[in-house]
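Input chain follows. Return structure tokens only.
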Amino acid sequence: MPSKTSLRILTALGALVFVYFVMYPEDAKAITAPVAAVLELSQSPSPWLYMLVAVGIVTWGIVRVWGWRETRR
């Protein structure tokens, strides 16, 4: 069960980071600005990025509910 525990910790940490950057979006811009400048990326995300994230979340939910289940021997 250690893998489930570490997955829960990573999920909680990811959720905290997400909430932080939702509350303070200027910090996200300050962190990503140097990387975007080096890679010459635009400062505004593409609508396709939001679509990709949404598809990933929906797919994860479907797999989580109806996906592969481990059988016990």
